[in-house]
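To: structure desk
From: M.T.
Subject: fold request, one chain
Message: Could you run this one when you get a chance? Sequence is below, nothing fancy, just the single chain.
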Amino acid sequence: MRCSCIIIFSFILVVSSQPESCHVGWMRLQDKCYFFSHTTASWFDAGDACAQFRSKLAEPRTVTESNFLKSHCQALNVNMWIGISDIIEEDRWEFSSTQDVVKNTEFGPGEPNAHTDQNCVALWKDFHGLWADHTCTERLNFICEADAAGGNTEIIG
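Reply: Done. Structure tokens follow.
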């Protein structure tokens, strides 16, 4: 009995001494934190909302990240904005934070389908989280992405 109490106490000390790497309400995957909104906004306003949290619209750059975001889109059963568009040049899908061209797109069947009328990408629940181009002014849920804080602490003052 005494041994198990020491083990539990040691575990609590180790867990409590680890710095939080994601804010409350955010989910961690590897070195990133994600926030899945419960409110809707246009693609532009969603990007602004993410910026208020020192983050950006999610930009899935790996298969692991993409699968993580798609699974949460399906679980929440909503369409969700991500940080990809072809606003600058038609059919040139870019990550919004860097304007790097997206090399591996994951559009659903028949997508993208609206050319100049729909320039922003959402994870589409009817496509099991695959992408759809959509009108950027439409109000959808959205996903924010930030680097996990880890042990880095910003000191102000």
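Reply (cont.): The first strand starts at residue 27 and ends at 29. Let me know if you need anything else for the meeting.
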